[in-house]
Amino acid sequence: MIARLIRLPWGAVIDGWHVLKELGDGGFAVVYLAEKNGQRRAIKVARHRDASGDDKQTHARLKRELTVLSMLDHPNIVELCGHGYAEAGNFYLALEYVDGWTLGEWKERKHPTFHEILSVFVKIAEALLYMHSRGILHRDLKLANVVIRKSDGKPIIIDFSCATYTQAADLTESGLPPGTDRFRAPEQFKFLREHRDEHRARYAFQVADEIFAVGAMLYELLTDPRPTEARARETLNNPFDPPAPARDLNARVPEALSDLVESILSRDPNLRPVDTEALRRELAELEADPGADYQAPAHPPSEQRQPQPVGQKPGRWSKLRALGGRVVADVRRLGKVLAAGAVAAVVLAAVVALWMLPSAQTLPSAAPAARHTCP
């Protein structure tokens, strides 16, 4: 039987689990909140691959996720509670259901201090260190794949759809492993360019790639007061042009923290922390800093208004503000002192050019995640 997946309404049944609502929709699966015998779980159902028409391919990623999660038992990693097959033949996982916010939502709603952000990232690094010690790589770390549980503030790494482990079979059909482009390390794009004519070439994902993704997440929280808002952002992984230091875009960022993020985002993977233990140690050292600057919110709450409704186009002023920050950062990095008239000309040109551009279409924001502990 070919497993096909349709949108399941409230009250539909998946192997005895009664669907309450849809939580998320990804490339490999759809996740539902469901209940059985008084227990609520996130039920992740494999999405059928129409291109292949092959049950094995339909279920391969989710069964890989089953293998990975069965190897893990950590307080900051989503817990596997069970698995089975839906009535339509689709493989599914039963996972903890976490009542919480994604990292981006947490940033906007709780207005965390730098110390609180560092505390979260120390725990993320500890979870990654645990994973890596078992030969497991997540490969899709991003703001939407870390949830802050409301009950205790703990970060939980979720969505292991793209994960792999030592000696796992290769499921990749393209040069790069699955993942989210914004959080890929720059060497991945360099690999694509250098092997564009080699159709069988496959990039070997490394711990250094995972460390870069951690830096990209941290950079987003430090520099963007509204990280869930869908709009154009500065590229973080251009192989030749690093992003502006976080402190240049947000003067509140402590200098030592800005320097650490800059090293994590280095174009050269050899200049990043050597492994996740080194990353954890450096984050923990800053977390322990008693300085008043670490007790300040990363952004004033006034800058963290609620995200625009889905489909609403971002205003030109917000674009101009971001562009202005980038211009200032570039000037600082180049070490050039511009005359006042030249600065005015640059700003005026930027305003005119930006005003003539059409507003970019926004993308839907990610669905909130939630979780409870398995008994």
Automatic annotation (TrEMBL):
Cited Gene3D superfamilies: Phosphorylase Kinase, domain 1, Transferase(Phosphotransferase) domain 1
By its UniProt entry, which Pfam families does this protein fall under? Pkinase
User: Any idea where the Protein kinase domain is?
Assistant: 17-284
Return one GO MF term. ATP binding
Sorted alphabetically, the keyword list is: ATP-binding, Kinase, Membrane, Nucleotide-binding, Serine/threonine-protein kinase, Transferase, Transmembrane, Transmembrane helix
Question: Region entry Disordered: which residue ranges?
Answer: 291-316
What residue intervals traverse the membrane? 337-357
- The superkingdom of the source organism is Bacteria
Residues bound to ATP: K44
Q: What is this protein called?
A: Serine/threonine protein kinase
